[in-house]
């Protein structure tokens, strides 16, 4: 399994996303320009120019027509995937951190960072079918008093919104009323900032990664803690194989401490765990900075990782991978 | 203090009416002795234990008696004189000099109180000025204020001491009787200190006792493993017990920094160093020697740090610990301290110098005891530009008879290494080459137990090699040396016996180019870990010296500490908090198989609990070795049972986990099925749930890029 090194970003990667067909890979980085790649051979297909700040996350519609990106330039933009043209810009008073399309792609949930006197917030926007009819109006705004919200995603049937961030507590909100429905148990929950959250393919469960050096698997409906995966490094990114019972954790030592130690001490490995037994089964080395983003191809036969080092590494699994027994 | 209860606003009102500032720095308040104003201390240790009295708050006050009684006119003059005398010793607190006056006659009463900044200064003032002659009639009598209180409290009538009925103590050695013959160790990580069993069979630990904030700086086992010592601001304490850890004794020594047990763990030496009030003075050093069981101070030593810093080549600043080195084996009979041109040897019967005087040795810079016998080895460096050679001599205690002496020429430094049974002494001598520009190293090997103590000189094959490490095989006749100037040095093994001649040293082998810089022999000998710490990032090689073969090589990345368990069955390697990452420890079998690995952030200490020496006689041990097969059968069977049980448990656990997971999956399927229609509606009728079960088809596409025909002519 020789990885394909994709060098297109000049700054650390922040987010990776495959489209539903698994033929396109979207990457976001601190260099203002989201990029789309062929997920098979890593060829660069195009870029989306227009943001004026680090791009923190993106999502692509089910039909691979629309791309939504959230950026530190306090905007969220809608793009035409094919042409790369901007369709609409939502303006906010603070940096936009996370974006996620709902089932059916008619809604998007966006989180904004606390900034100046503004607290962090979760916004729900209606996405018009025709970009000409798109408005700025929010369907719902949930003001979060608690630090930065690193990720917010839709729950089953768009009825709930799941959020996680700096205060280490996962919350489930009613997407109609904005009422807080559930909070994760403090005892069993994460102890430090939650950096990443990813849903399973069917949305029934999700995985969170935290700086407390662990990742946890939760039931989406009841917010029951199902599994915990313990590692030796702060976790920046998590991904779940749609094919096998594997989860992948990426991370590494703080970027600020990287230069002070041997690269081996940094452990910038993507670590594979057995999803059910919670045991480590392997690791994929290569990055020379912490891993900030991870994504599985929907076919489960390849995955990509994005690092603080500015590279995206695309890995196609060897045949042996599909026969791992522990 | 009246035990009235006042409401806070009442107090404030009253305070305001009396113009009292209520903004008090509560840390500055020191209540009188025995008075807690009804406030229960949350420090359980301080609260429950009346046996020891630490700071009363007046420890820095002295009382000076026998002052002249002077009328009011001369008051200021006298005060000036006293202030002059006492401010030379330390800093008197503001308003810290109080000379009471008779309210009627307005004359002084002939005594005064002086408050210093620190108790150390007060003590020093007492020591220095007690008996000070102001004039013939006025000889100062100086006492600590606290002492008055102490003596006042002595009841006038003698009461017979209460005889407590004998209660048998706990068996402090119970851990040795563990059914599974496991060993214990203590670890300190974050604020927690834990004592654990090493359950190597099950590849895990088992908790014995855990406590947060157990110690304020470090913990230490006593040499025979009976006690665990903790160190606190007020002093040291030892803990032990049959099944848990109870505090057995406390040893008051404010600001204790270092502790050391005697080898037989009868005595505990505690050390503290205090900043002087005058920055030009050296630190004040206080050393106490306690009886471990009774907690009594057997002897204390106080003085300036200068008096304790002699020793070490070149007299490097700083006290070298332990200041007192114990000799004479496990009987704890003697202890000795290096002084200027002398070695002070004390015996523990009376805690005084042997023959009431120190052993005079001009210019002595280092000494060490035989680990088993009352024999001292001491080193005197070269003097007078080489006119007087350096010297190593062995001195018998208490007779102070010199047993053997060896003069060494053009020596720059010497290090002494005793073999653990006291049979051999190796002296590593660094000598100047003829040009004096560089040094080379040789060894002087003493055979202590043989008649006349023969000495043999050993030089390495390449005598210019730098010596990186040296270590005797415990209880054995072999030693290992790491030598060489290369980035990858060589390691040589020697034996004090040759095949033909028992009295001759011989080389066993040399391993070339190893990534090692430290040697760790198994306590049972025979096996050794050749470790590459620091620059080598934690390389480990497990070597069998009997067969001269490597059993395993491994790595514990960034390992800082390595320690064999007392039985020589397991090795612990640890990464302590000197590194930010990867903190924790690994447990290995003696032959280098990683058994388990535990990660702990802020990992400070790992210490195996020592075991006392075996009671088995040499003959008995030999017999056991002979019939080892017979004995080991039982243990092999047990091992097998455990491993069967483990794999059974493991299978069971996996089965449970899988079952549990299946339950979730079916629950999710059900929920997903229920929501199917709704989902279709959300997707505008796109019925495609099945597609979520992704199926990838491989499609082979053949594309013809170019096609041309060429005709090749043949000749």
TrEMBL record, chain A:
GO cellular component, one term: eukaryotic 48S preinitiation complex
Database matches in PROSITE patterns: WD_REPEATS_1 (PS00678), WD_REPEATS_2 (PS50082), WD_REPEATS_REGION (PS50294)
Gene Ontology biological-process annotations: formation of cytoplasmic translation initiation complex
GO molecular function: RNA binding; translation initiation factor activity
UniProt cross-references to InterPro entries, sorted A to Z: eIF3i (IPR027525), WD40/YVTN_repeat-like_dom_sf (IPR015943), WD40_PAC1 (IPR020472), WD40_repeat_CS (IPR019775), WD40_repeat_dom_sf (IPR036322), WD40_rpt (IPR001680)
Keywords: Cytoplasm, Initiation factor, Protein biosynthesis, Repeat, WD repeat
Main location: cytoplasm
Subcellular location(s) per record: Cytoplasm
WD repeats: 6-47, 48-89, 142-183, 187-228, 284-314
HAMAP family, per database record: eIF3i
Subunit structure: Component of the eukaryotic translation initiation factor 3 (eIF-3) complex.
Primary role: Component of the eukaryotic translation initiation factor 3 (eIF-3) complex, which is involved in protein synthesis of a specialized repertoire of mRNAs and, together with other initiation factors, stimulates binding of mRNA and methionyl-tRNAi to the 40S ribosome. The eIF-3 complex specifically targets and initiates translation of a subset of mRNAs involved in cell proliferation.
Family: Belongs to the eIF-3 subunit I family. Belongs to the WD repeat STRAP family.
UniProt protein name: Eukaryotic translation initiation factor 3 subunit I
UniProt source species: Gossypium mustelinum (Cotton)
Automatic annotation (TrEMBL), chain B:
Gene Ontology terms describing biological process: formation of cytoplasmic translation initiation complex
PROSITE patterns (UniProt xref): RRM
Localization per record: Cytoplasm
Keyword annotations of the record: Cytoplasm, Initiation factor, Protein biosynthesis, RNA-binding
InterPro entries: EIF3B, eIF3B_RRM, Nucleotide-bd_a/b_plait_sf, RBD_domain_sf, RRM_dom, TIF_beta_prop-like, WD40/YVTN_repeat-like_dom_sf
An annotated GO cellular component: eukaryotic 43S preinitiation complex
Record's compositionally biased regions (Acidic residues): 687-698
Listed GO MF terms: RNA binding; translation initiation factor activity; translation initiation factor binding
RRM domain ranges (all copies): 60-147
Gene3D superfamilies assigned to the protein according to its UniProt record, in alphabetical order: 3.30.70.330, YVTN repeat-like/Quinoprotein amine dehydrogenase
Pfam family, one: RRM_1
SMART domains: RRM
Compositional bias per record (Basic and acidic residues), positions renumbered to this chain: 672-686
Region annotation Disordered: where it falls in the sequence: 672-698
Coiled coil ranges: none
UniProt-listed PANTHER family: EUKARYOTIC TRANSLATION INITIATION FACTOR 3 EIF3 -RELATED, EUKARYOTIC TRANSLATION INITIATION FACTOR 3 SUBUNIT B
UniProt family annotation: Belongs to the eIF-3 subunit B family.
Subunit record text: Component of the eukaryotic translation initiation factor 3 (eIF-3) complex.
Its biological purpose: Component of the eukaryotic translation initiation factor 3 (eIF-3) complex, which is involved in protein synthesis and, together with other initiation factors, stimulates binding of mRNA and methionyl-tRNAi to the 40S ribosome.
HAMAP family from the UniProt entry: eIF3b
Designated name of the protein: Eukaryotic translation initiation factor 3 subunit B
Provenance organism: Gossypium mustelinum
